[in-house]
UniProtKB/TrEMBL annotation:
This is Cytochrome P450. Its cofactor is heme. InterPro entries: Cyt_P450, Cyt_P450_CS, Cyt_P450_E_grp-I, Cyt_P450_sf. Heme binds at residue 329. Pfam families: p450 (PF00067). Keywords: Heme, Iron, Membrane, Metal-binding, Monooxygenase, Oxidoreductase, Transmembrane, Transmembrane helix. The lineage of its organism: Eukaryota, Viridiplantae, Streptophyta, Embryophyta, Tracheophyta.
């Protein structure tokens, strides 16, 4: 049922397209914010994560909770989300490596998780209550229409209630707790991942000015300097697409994907794998394997995708940033739109350079492993506007 909801409702092509105006507005807000910096150095990550957080919250839980207008609810929600990422991404939990010490909770991770779970549950309950009230008002006026992903889930919950007594198994039915879990997964999975990929891409491009110049030339040729890049343009920007693919190859957000399990006894590369074995797929190592990527596999070379049929949608096992099969990320289509348009507009709107005294070789590419694989040293860069001034002030 969860897969069906994701495929046919939450992340269907129709639903994703219906939120294009939100993605467009948030890209405009991102470039306006950078423009106001007046050509001064910025912490790229902070701007990117703010934009992606507002984007996913507006699509999923409404403007009030996105913090777009400085609401108290939005700001408090953002702070809680940041702490959730910090705690959930911790990898040094002694109790998981030495189970008999787990009850001691030596690092306090379990206590923080329990406290945060209550905080998060309170937020999610408030969000659902708000949506219930709005849906009841809309129902009295006319037929309720889904405004965001929470509305879609609440409508499904109502349908499940109406279908009571059917052959559906109770375990497969959607519950209020199930909706909260969906919303939490959408926020966690959709916020940081896109920002991580874009920051890695910008870091690689600043280390390779020739690649950045080639991408900018393509944007000038296809889009021109009289407007911003739209999602419809992505199909005509093969080099930008290659930059995104190469970034996902070298810097997958989840280098080990989500845990998998062997459904039957099997033999892999001479190793017996019993049914029930937990499996971690190392897509980071697969994407750097010289056998599959013979042309300097550890280097950032987008041109390797020129004329190549290899894609990131789970059909080519040498490149699996979103996974494959039944456990593939259901929102990969949305992610590619957010990353593609965000990165294209950053390159189209600004000529990026490193701060004075910093050379391309000085850009740190160390990884910080947690809930996602972020840069250990955040990227600092200078955006210098390259389009007509009136475009930065334009409001959709």
């Amino acid at each position: 049922m969860a897969r069906r909801l994701c495929t046919t409702e939450l992340f269907s092509g129709r639903r994703v397209d219906s939120y294009e105006y939100i993605r467009r507005q948030e890209v405009r807000a991102l470039v306006r914010g950078l423009f106001r910096r007046g050509g001064r150095a910025v912490a790229v990550w902070e701007h990117l994560v703010d934009a992606t957080l507002r984007n996913v919250l507006r699509m999923s839980v409404e403007d009030k909770w996105s913090g777009c207008y400085g609401s108290a609810e939005g700001e408090e929600f953002r702070r809680a989300r940041e702490e959730v990422f910090a705690v959930a991404g911790a990898v040094s939990n002694v109790g998981e490596w030495v189970p008999w010490l787990g009850w001691l909770d030596l690092q306090g991770g379990v206590r923080r998780m329990k406290r945060l779970s209550k905080v998060y549950d309170r937020f999610l309950e408030s969000i659902l209550d708000d949506h219930d009230q709005e849906r009841h008002k809309a129902a009295r006026a006319s037929s309720p229409a889904a405004r965001d992903l929470v509305d879609v889930l609440l409508q499904q919950l109502a349908k499940e209630g109406e279908a009571d007594g059917t052959s559906s198994s109770p375990e497969a039915r959607l519950t209020r707790d199930g909706i909260k879990a969906f919303v939490q997964d959408i926020i966690v999975g959709g916020t940081e991942s896109s920002a991580v990929v874009m920051e890695w891409a910008m870091s690689e491009l600043l280390r390779r000015p020739d690649v950045a110049a080639a991408a900018t030339d393509e944007l000038d040729r296809v889009v021109g300097r009289g407007r911003w890049v739209e999602e419809r343009d992505l199909a005509h920007l093969p080099y930008i697409d290659a930059v995104v693919k190469e970034t996902l190859r070298l810097h997958p957000v989840g280098p080990l994907l989500v845990p998998h399990m062997a459904r039957e006894n099997t033999l892999v590369a001479g190793y017996d794998v019993p049914a029930g074995t937990r499996l971690l797929v190392n897509v980071w190592a697969i994407a750097r394997d010289p056998t599959s990527w013979p042309d300097r596999s550890d280097e950032f070379r987008p041109e390797r995708f020129a004329g190549s049929a290899v894609d990131v949608r789970g059909q080519h096992f040498e490149l699996l940033p979103f996974g494959a099969g039944r456990r593939m990320c259901p929102a990969y289509g949305l992610a590619l739109k957010v990353i593609g348009t965000g990165l294209a507009n950053l390159l189209h709107g600004f000529a990026w350079r490193l701060p004075d005294g910093v050379s391309p070789e000085d850009v740190s590419m160390e990884e910080l492993f947690g809930l996602s694989t972020r840069k250990k040293v955040p990227l600092i860069a200078v955006p210098e506007p390259r389009l007509p001034v009136h475009l930065y002030a334009a409001v959709d």
